Amino acid sequence: MWSSSQRPAARCKPSAFPASFGVPCTGMVLFQASILRTAATLSPLSRKSFMARKKQPVVPGDTDSSRDHTDETLLKAGAALQRAIFNSANFSSIATDAKGVIQIFNVGAERMLGYTAAEVMNKITPADISDPQEVIARAKALSIELGTPITPGFEALVFKASRGIEDIYELTYFRKDGSRFPAVVSVTALRDAQDAIIGYLLIGTDNTARQLVEAEQKKLDQRLRDQQFYTRSLIESSIDALMTTDPSGIITDVNKQMEALTGCTRDELIGAPFKNYFTDPERAEAAIKLVLSEKKVSNYELTARALDGKETVVSYNATTIYDRGRTLQGVFAAARDVTQSKQLETELQHAKAMAETASRAKSDFLASMSHEIRTPMNAIIGIADLLAKTPLTPEQDNYVQIFRRAGDNLLNLTNDILDLSKVEASQLELEHTGFSLTDVIEKTREMVAVRASEKGLALVCEVAPEVPTDLVGDPTRLRQVLLNLLGNAIKFTESGEVALRVRPAPPAAAPGTLCFVISDTGIGIPGDKLGAVFEQFTQADSSTTRKYGGSGLGLTISKRLVELMGGRIWVESGVGQGSEFSFTVPLALWEGATLRAAVTEGGGPQPVLPALRILLVEDSPDNRTIAMAYLQHTPYRIDIAENGAIAYDKFIAGRYDLVLMDRQMPVMDGLTSTRNIRAWEQDHQCTPTPIIALTASALLGDREKCLAAGCTAFLTKPIKQEVLLQAIGEHSAATAASRRSSAQDVIEVRANPVLADLIPAFLQNRRKDVIAMRAALADGDFDTVSRLGHSMRGSGGGYGFQAITDIGLALEQAAAVSDGAASQRCLAELSSFLDRVEVV
Fold this sequence. Notes:
Blueprint: E1 28-38, E2 41-50, E3 61-64, H1 72-86, E4 92-97, E5 102-105, H2 107-113, H3 117-120, H4 132-146, H5 154-162, E6 167-174, E7 180-191, E8 197-206, H6 208-237, E9 241-245, E10 251-254, H7 256-262, H8 266-269, H9 281-294, E11 296-305, E12 311-322, E13 328-337, H10 339-388, H11 394-424, E14 433-436, H12 437-454, E15 458-463, E16 470-473, H13 475-491, E17 497-504, E18 513-520, H14 542-548, H15 554-564, E19 568-573, E20 579-586, E21 588-589, H16 593-601, E22 613-617, H17 621-630, E23 637-641, H18 644-653, E24 658-662, H19 670-683, E25 691-695, H20 702-709, E26 713-716, H21 721-742, E27 747-749, H22 759-778, H23 782-795, H24 802-816, H25 820-836, E28 837-839
Parallel strand pairs: 15-17, 22-23, 22-24, 24-25, 25-26, 27-28
Antiparallel strand pairs: 1-2, 2-3, 4-5, 4-8, 6-7, 7-8, 9-10, 9-13, 11-12, 12-13, 14-16, 16-21, 17-18, 18-20, 19-20
Helix pairs in contact: 4-5, 10-11, 10-17, 11-15, 12-13, 13-15, 18-19, 18-22, 22-23, 22-25, 23-24, 24-25
Membrane topology: Multi-pass membrane protein
Function: Member of the two-component regulatory system BvgS/BvgA. Phosphorylates BvgA via a four-step phosphorelay in response to environmental signals.
Domain HPt: 751-840
């Protein structure tokens, strides 16, 4: 029997298990027991048990320790270790007898199941604390597996172990409180010395945590599979050919679009070089290298070639791909078929080129039309203006007024066409300047008053008291709209009145918005025609055009201008009830109006015109005649040049205070001549001379081109006399005064009356000589300097210019000894003299 000091810690009946049974464990277990050797005699034995295999019963071996007690301490330690393992709280150890009744129930079992050992020992079997459905299912499964009927119950739990088969399985245990938990159970049969089964040992561990981990892992695995499926679905549904390559450019995966693009299967593509499927393999390989170096490539164009030879232009976009450790895995690339878009792009480029050609043709036509119409119109209107200022009979005056009106109408039509083309091309630019609304309305009224008076119409202009008069905006375009609307009102009104009224816009409008209303008592417009009055070349009735004339562009341009200024325009009318055109325009207050008024009021009398020397550059004899007539009664002295080349020669040889430069001329145009003049002035460090461009072209950009070439101002033909005189006065006064204040004293030379007509050409030739001698000195050509100096020495005195004779002699002498420095000083003296000389 068990002695009290050697009994196992687990509570059990000593008679139930002889000391000869072993406890299965991993490794070697030592324990000491007492067995009967002879009757009433106890002999201590050292029992060593070894596990040959996991979960196999221990085969004990006995040695008589009576002859050697040196291992006593070791045996005691082994017994303590055995008890510690068996009573571990980390797993349950349940030992039963051969029938399954629980005999041992360790601390771990108590903790896991909630029972005390006393509550279960000798009372129940492990099957009683197991899920019955699982027990039944296990019995059924084992019956099928082993081919023998197994009764559900404890037998199902230990059947394999009873047959010597290793048995580890999962089972659900019920706790005392009714809760359940999964366990992993290892079953071992306990045998006596004769190998008869005397019981079973069930070692179990709580599998809850493991199942949770496994469940979570299953979720993660499923999520990964779902993600892979989703990703693959995205890849396959893409319209682009997608592929991945390793860093060396070997394809590692593709989608169906890539298969379609190349005509190869996925298996054929994987493992093949990326570059093999493009018409330019080197460029394709460069694409891979580029994305590896730049990390990303966009819109890299390649041409793919399929097995059947079909070529497809693709836009290649790619990026590098990495694993979680940021190790480079390769390249992910997308190739989009852009064949159609490339074709469309080509067609668009062709269409754009055609449109640009058409636009240039239109611009060239408009420029040509403008020039060809404005050039004779300048003569027509100019002559009419000049005639109107001469004594005329009433009949002659009537004739003059007729072709003045005709010229104005033609000019208005030309301006309308040009304005419309600018608006359509979004090339019309607005001013943003301060102006007086009163001045704009008054000047507009003056321009239409004569026509209204001729028809016996009352012309009413009213401005509401609360309307500010000093504003910021584009007065020119505002006046143009008012003239169009008032002109139409007068044209279509036979009796009654035409009125212009200005008032603040309704509160709903933007701050500072004014409303202009032009009303008449004329023929009116049918209701079904109101929507068309603002269309191009449209009038309410075609018979209206025959009776009243007009191009039908005025209202179209007015609408575009109002909208460009940020407003809107509308009309209300009825047949025989007159018309009322209204438009709104947002305008800001002019803060500088007070200063302007003070300057205007402080102005003194008009200054006396200075005696300017003007170079008129104009190829048209008619326009030269008109310009000369405009300037006839001024103190200006006019020289004429028929083209830009002559103008340049005269300018560098003469001394002018201002140049009037036509733009389009034969031989050399005005802009080229202007650029040459400016270059000459810069080379000779001269103060820039005002150059006023006179052009018959009024397209957008013409003014900028003239200013860029070096022109000071820009006037559009036909040019009124007062406009020309004002421009000359504005741009010449300061320059002429500056020249007079900064120049040396003028040298006055009284001309010989007999030679007076020849002197200008003589002086001009001497200026050319200066240029020629400077060039000769630069080349070391003293013969030319000597020859020209000799010529001046002989001719200067004859024209009354002794200084030229003296300088000519000095030049001749300096050239004779090849003295370049002396020659340069003489040329500087001659040039200064020519700039200062004034023939009286």
